[in-house]
Amino acid sequence: MSQNYEMLIDGKWTKSKSGASRNITDPASGELVAVVPESSKEDAVAAIQAARRAFDYGPWRKVSALERGKILFRIGDAIRAEGAKLAKLEVQNCGKPLAEAEYDVADAANCFEFYGGLATKIQGETMSVPANSVSIVVREPVGVCGQIIPWNYPLLMAAWKLAPALAAGNTVILKPSELTPVTALELGRLMMALEIPAGVVNIITGPGAGAGEELASNPNVDKIAFTGGTVTGRKIMNGATSNLKKISLELGGKNPNIVFADADLEAAIDGALFAAFANQGEVCSAGSRLLVESSIHKKLVDGMLAKIPKIKLGHGLTAGVKMGPLISAAHREKVESYIKIGRDEGATLVCGGKRPQGPEFEKGHFLEPTIFDYVKPQMRVAKEEIFGPVLSVIPFNSEAQAIQIANDTEYGLAAAVWTQNATRGLRVTKELRAGITWINNYHSTFNELPWGGYKQSGMGRELGLYGIEAYLETKQININLDTAPIGWY
Ligand code: NDP
């Protein structure tokens, strides 16, 4: 049964000013999940004004760090208490398998708890420069923060954005993807039950063109935090020049997953499949380029092909399902266009490449896990972010060549190395131009560690101690201990 939602503006649940709404459908079944307001610039302006008032005149900045921290812990508790409902809604809204959604929900709660703890550890410093003065360096909230997030991890991305911003004392306007607003609105409902002052958290639904652009360009917004595609990231930067907003960007990737001949083969096979196909491959850090040493190339590919039948496709709420549908019909068509490009470029399709057949797949945007072998580094399927279940296997002959191919990309988000030689693992990892790296592992993400990319994969870092920096200003306060006139004139 579908539910009607309103947006959260200034502590009140609100329809869009135009009265327009949007149907949110389950990408696996086409069923209606929710009806949400379709906001426009005017709604974004109302939310920005509410956040501005709440920051400039409201009580939030004066709430002690201890109290802010406690509120964040209570948000974590509230997420856990409604975890089963949130996970189910996440599956129905964005298609991922239930086990993945449950992991996201738990991680979202952990994120609020991490930043709840950090709220009381935001510290400045003191200095005595020159001798007759004392200087204090204090950290203050940036102000009004616009936060724009994508459709692949709707609840988790909302947590990554809201938790550090609130811990630091900011007010926020969050805009989820137009396709996946449901769990962000549910999170808003949980937060309002905790008596967070009106205007501190505003959640607007609707398209990037309009509401999202307004958040990026409106001069009353002090900071914009964005997760999404690199092309959109550039537009956000352009919009942010209006008042030289502080910017943080988490963008796309074309991430190399490098397997050396001395790797534990079984672990590498598992890791390569998980890197490429978790969350249908709709992951910014997906290991979408599998670089494999030539001497084990055939064994590794055969090992993956033997396991592909275990990736059961279906509705994410069906027991045993390991891969759900893609987010939309348009996105599936985009991914399919890359499969055609790969074939036309001469890569060898060794599995997938088509829609699964059967009545359970007819109404969803399903696509089989797809592997191209003998991909050349210059092919488009090796260069461009496909953001779906398409893996490109690229053989290499030496460590130096692996590093060269791995770094030959405009992106620099994530990378992994599989080897049982610890020295090689570290040596190669140090050469990789990427912000998130793994050795004998893939996709593990920690609230305690910085997340973000080199090169065109973004600017700044989220999570960990680094993540709160994006939401803090730094002020020096100089106290003169010598009260005599300076006698300059
Ligand atoms: P988009 O860049 O299309 O959209 C991301 C968000 O930006 C959505 O809320 C979207 O709104 C909004 N938006 C779109 N156009 C504008 C605009 N002109 N001004 C302001 N906001 C805008 O990305 P997707 O949602 O398609 O997500 C996929 C992309 O996100 C991939 O490239 C992926 O790599 C990246 N990503 C990066 C992550 C990271 O941590 N680095 C994590 C997850 C995803 P709407 O959709 O509502 O119209």
Report on this model:
The chain has helices spanning about 40-55, 65-80, 85-95, 100-120, 155-165, 180-190, 210-215, 230-240, 265-275, 295-305, 330-345, 380-385, 400-405, 420-430, 465-470; strands spanning about 5, 5-10, 10-15, 20-25, 30-35, 125, 135-140, 145-150, 170-175, 200-205, 225, 245-250, 255-260, 290-295, 350, 370-375, 390-395, 415-420, 435-440, 460, 470-480. With about 500 residues, it is of the alpha/beta class. Strands 15-16-17-14-13-18-19 form a seven-stranded mixed β-sheet, with helices on both faces. Helix 7 (about 210-215) packs across helix 8 and helix 9 crosses helix 10. The mean pLDDT is about 95. Bound molecules: NADPH dihydro-nicotinamide-adenine-dinucleotide phosphate. NADPH dihydro-nicotinamide-adenine-dinucleotide phosphate (NDP) binds near residues 149, 250, 252 and 387. NADPH dihydro-nicotinamide-adenine-dinucleotide phosphate binds next to helix 7 and helix 8.
**Span of the ends, CA to CA:** 78 Å
Which band does the percent of strand residues land in?
Answer: 15-25%
Q: What global shape is seen?
A: globular
Mean pLDDT: 97
Extended strand count: 21
Helix content: 25-40%
Low-confidence stretches: none
* Backbone structural class: alpha/beta
Which ligands appear in the coordinates? Answer: NADPH dihydro-nicotinamide-adenine-dinucleotide phosphate
Q: Give me the number of helical elements.
A: 15
Radius of gyration: 24 Å
Largest beta sheet: what is the strand line-up?
Answer: 15-16-17-14-13-18-19
Largest sheet geometry: 7 strands, mixed
